[in-house]
Amino acid sequence: MEKNRDAPLRDFLAGMPELAALGGLLEPGQECYLVGGLVRDLLLGRSIAMGDIDLLTSGDPSPLARRFAARIHGHFFFMDEERGHSRVVVSARKEMPAFDFAPFRAADLAGDLGARDFTLNALAWPLHLPPAQGRLIDPLEGWNDCRMGLLRRCAPDVLQADPLRVLRGVRLAVQLNFAMEEETQRLMEEAVPGLRRVAGERILAELGKIFSSADVLRGAALLREVGCLAFFFGPATAPEKAFAGALELLKRTETCFRIFPEIWLAEEIENGWSRAALLRFAALLQGCGVAKEDGGWQQTLPFSRNSRHMIGDLATVPAGLCDDYLSLISSNRGKALWLCAQGKHPLEKMIFAFLLAGDKVEPYRDGLDEAFYLWEEHVVEGRIPPLVSAEELRKRFGLPAGPRIGELLRRLAEEEISGEVGSREEALKWLRRELERD
Asked: Of all helices (H) and strands (E), which one includes residue 203?
């Protein structure tokens, strides 16, 4: 049984000679363990995205990390020198993960694992032993919880010790599709007020992972169940009726996302938050009735200025925006100009108008698809070059530089949007008529 359980870890280590080299670099009696989410994911058979490899040692790991960096031709640097945390990276090999070294946070390994957040993360594999002698170290029966699909806290006080673990628990339950143990959920609820003392950047990073997950509906539901939504946005988000409306909007976002290219939705707007994640977050606020003016959450969640503007813009989108687009009789370029006239986030606003349309969404699907195509086709660095440039206006019509040229170009764009002008020739005719009137 143990042999089959441990096979994925042995196979991984067999394909990672860099880790095998650690054994020969240790000081006499020094212990070194592979820990963290990598151990869990290997045991669960999940696909491994090579990010950071967490290594835990007895004593100060810094000398070991320096020797390891020299062995693999990597670079050593401290992440937190006071706590003895360091990292080794191999910049010449992009496929190589970073190796993070840290000392025990307690007197021994058992104490360190017992102080972690959830049992599924309290797993370790000894690297100081020959591979054939290694066995999974699992003092809290985290592997059994993994097999049962259960999220369970380690010690009773670990959530109060770091309330961010409440959000991490929600994220893990969603990502792994695990159920929450009843007592663990109760302790999470009790720990939520402690989020006041957690740095907003840390909170924002965890929320970004939740709203980026494939099952964001469950993520939102769990955030409500443990009390996070009421904590961040006020008690109005807690009633069943209000939250049901939010879930409905979130469901529609997934329908709408199928219309748009994945690469556009996945574009990172700020650290850890894709465009799709921000749209989902804004949909949740809209559905829960959190007004743009309710600024308390903006202090708790320090989004970048660009993200705040996007969320604020989406909060004021009129429900009839898609109808306005479909009623346009202008050229494709004129429709793209109309999109530009909607401000900084026109496609995101179109998505939101689609969400607000309720069940009457079918007529808008083709319009959304067309809007994205026209935006990509005509917009260059956030703007559409005019049919007649300012320089040509000056040369062709002898106009001096000044506000008059800008006014003419603005009105010309309006004529394109209305459908009165549809080509360069028509633009020149319109300009001649306007100038003859002066």
From this structure: helix 200-211
Cα gap 404→395, rounded to integer Å = 14
Q: Report domain extents, the chain.
A: 2-148, 158-315, 321-378, 390-437
Closest CA to 273 of 213, 362, 343: 213
pLDDT of 261 reads: 87
pTM score of the predicted model: 0.89
Q: Domain 158-315 class?
A: mainly alpha
Residue 1: what pLDDT? 57
What backbone torsions phi and psi does residue 40 show, to the nearest 5 degrees? -60, -50
Distance CA 356, CA 359 (A): 9
Strands (E), 249-348: 268-270, 273-274
CA triplet 138, 37, 214: central angle to 5 degrees? 130
Distance CA 331, CA 416 (A): 7
Listed in order, strand segments (DSSP E) in 113-241 are 124-126, 150-151, 179-180
Q: Is the dihedral of CA 227, 229, 233, 236 positive or negative?
A: negative
Domain spanning 2-148: which superfamily?
Answer: Beta Polymerase, domain 2 (3.30.460.10)
Give tens-digit pLDDT for 328-342.
999 999 999 999 999
Residues with Cβ within 8 Å of 191's Cβ and at least 6 positions away in sequence, in order, are 159, 160, 163, 165, 166
